[in-house]
Design a protein that fits this description.
The chain has about 160 residues and is of the alpha+beta class. It is about 30% helix and about 25% strand. The protein has a 3-stranded antiparallel sheet with strand order 7-2-8. About 10% of the residues are buried.
């Protein structure tokens, strides 16, 4: 929840990564396949935390449906593929970044104090149009939910036992 912000706030940008991925599946199947097969690494490390994940950018479920998209630029680590796959992997990544920047995939709006946004981090990409480093303030409260816990609770509630 956004608690406060400066007067000249930037726009927030949201992209449905599943839609972008499905469009790639139809229009550029080689890029889509690369994202489903190439193993990338993501890292997030502080004094108290050290998270590491390896896997494809697009994760398919057992029905070949998109279940997750990993597109965290600042946490992406080393690409570990044979040399002859490096160009294709990075070219696919450039294609992805060009797509998510297209206005047809974006929803933009300014937040106001007290606004609440809830979304699935494994489906929705989010950013801001710019950062104002010369003043102003922005204070956010983040809240994260474990997907397994959430789905369990929803199943229990749907059968009228919660």
């Amino acid at each position: 929840m956004l608690c406060s912000l400066s007067q000249n706030s930037e726009e927030n940008v949201f992209v449905d990564a599943f839609r972008v991925a499905e469009d790639l599946r139809r229009s550029e199947p080689e890029v889509f396949r690369n994202f489903c097969e190439t193993i990338w690494e993501w890292k997030y490390s502080t004094k108290e935390e050290d998270y590491r994940v390896e896997g494809p950018i697009i994760v398919l479920d057992h029905n070949n449906q998109i279940g997750e998209v990993r597109s965290i630029t600042y946490q992406r680590g080393t690409l570990r593929v044979p040399y002859n796959q490096v160009d294709a992997s990075y070219n696919a990544l450039l294609t992805w970044y060009r797509r998510v920047k297209e206005s047809r995939y974006q929803v933009r709006f300014k937040l106001r104090p007290g606004d609440l946004i809830a979304f699935d981090n494994r489906r929705i990409l989010h950013a801001r149009t710019h950062f104002n480093l010369s003043g102003g303030s922005r204070y956010l409260i983040g809240c994260y939910v474990d997907t397994d816990d959430l789905m369990s609770k929803m199943r229990v509630l749907s059968r009228g036992q919660g």
